[in-house]
Amino acid sequence: MEIPARVGEKNEKNSEGKLKWWQLSLIGVGCTIGTGYFLGSGIGISKTGPSIVISFILAGLTAMIVSELLGKMFVQDPQKGSFRSYAKKAFGRWAGFSSGWVYWFSEMLISGSQLTALSILTRFWFPNIPLWILASIYAALGIIVVLIGTKGFERAENLFAVMKVAAIFMFIILAILLLFGFFGGSIRDFNIPNTSEELFANGLTGLWSSLIFGFYAFGGIEIMGILSVRLEQKKEVIKSTTVMLIMLLSIYLISIILASTLVAFDQFNAEESPFVIALADYNLNFFPHVFNAGIIIAGFSTMAASLFAVTSMLVTMSEEGDAPKLFSKKGRLKVPPFALALTISVLVISIVISRLVPDKVYEYITTAAGLMLIYNWFFILVSFPKLIKATTFDHIKRILAMLLILLAVSGTIFDKTNRMGFFVSILFVALILIVILFMRKGKKKKNELPRSV
């Protein structure tokens, strides 16, 4: 989540009206691709084999519908708070509060997910160092970046985004060269599925449980709603998001098809990037090191920027009364100390979890983060008809997207590891609902007080 942090740090005049629609599309591609795709897609392949492409297609279709409806709301009523503001307008303060905190929790989970992913990737070179030690190092570096907030790092974020896309293109080019016999490869190395059993490695249940990893790869499209205020022509937001998602889906599908057909599905896991695994048996000794380094650098930039974003969002919610006032109380640091302390506390919890359950922690956090993100997608879909005069086709698309989201959520229940992530996400939602109930109870008592005096 690179850009929101920077938007929050610049003044309003400088942050608006500077982007053409195609520039926003490119930024969206760079911001959405993360270690969740570079590493998490391997988990999806291990669950369903080559049919993982179906999960990505369904997730991409849902993302297109959600972004289109969010874009329509923006064109009619531009709001800097994006989906959070629309939820508040559609259903009241409780909805804006819920949407904001669900997004905050999802972003913190993504930070934890990135933290764990970076640690897993680093163990490629240092296999004997415990995961929690590497996670602690990256967490400390991320917090330092939040505290410093240098302009040089801000400029570097765009370079890091380019590196993510370049890493995928490097894999695609190398895999295609293998088709033509380079690096000891051959077209016979590609295992094209000929039967339904080969396509659906673990049946329809496997495909169902893999859906969440397809959705998680598109997590971040909400950024387009937040960045829309920077467009020169606000009406071009839908074109921008559509082009971005087509580009993203194309990159994803080509690379996933190549990776899933080069290696048997049961060789993929949550410990290595599927793209490194796919090319491990060829004369490409340089590739794992270069690719791994590229992912780590880009992944760190995403994690650090996410920490900027969630800390900034917490301060904003505090100023608007949707979080305790102490989180917006300023101190000597550039960042409000209590907001920073909460961010650090959640990172510490992620590190503790990686110490207790190191084998499955990444999958747990990835599942929970993906679910929290698409809960907010659901908020966007239900808010739309409250604020926009929807056409029949809009309703059809909206219902289809809601069904696909419910399908992805329910699919996590059928897999033992995914199920833990589902319960984690439900726990966070339950906490938010409990807080809302206490807020309403407190408001009710406040309104009744004058009558009893």
Notes on the structure:
The protein is mainly α and about 450 residues long. The protein has helices spanning about 1-10, 10-15, 20-30, 35-40, 40-50, 50-75, 85-90, 95-120, 130-150, 150-180, 195-200, 205-215, 220-225, 235-260, 275-280, 285-320, 335-355, 360-385, 390-410, 415-450. Helix 3 packs parallel to helix 14 (about 235-260) and helix 8 (about 95-120) runs antiparallel to helix 18. Residues about 1-15 have low confidence and may be disordered.
Key words describing this protein structure:
453 residues, mainly alpha, globular, disordered N terminus
Question: What topology emerges from the helices and strands here?
Answer:
Layout (H helix, E strand, L loop, with lengths): L1 H8 L2 H4 L5 H12 L2 H4 L1 H9 L3 H25 L6 H9 L1 H30 L8 H18 L2 H29 L16 H4 L3 H15 L4 H6 L9 H26 L11 H5 L7 H34 L17 H20 L4 H27 L4 H20 L4 H37 L1
Helix pairs in contact: 1-16, 3-10, 3-14, 5-12, 6-12, 6-14, 6-18, 6-19, 7-8, 7-18, 8-9, 8-16, 8-17, 8-18, 8-20, 9-16, 9-17, 10-14, 10-16, 12-18, 12-19, 16-17, 18-19, 18-20
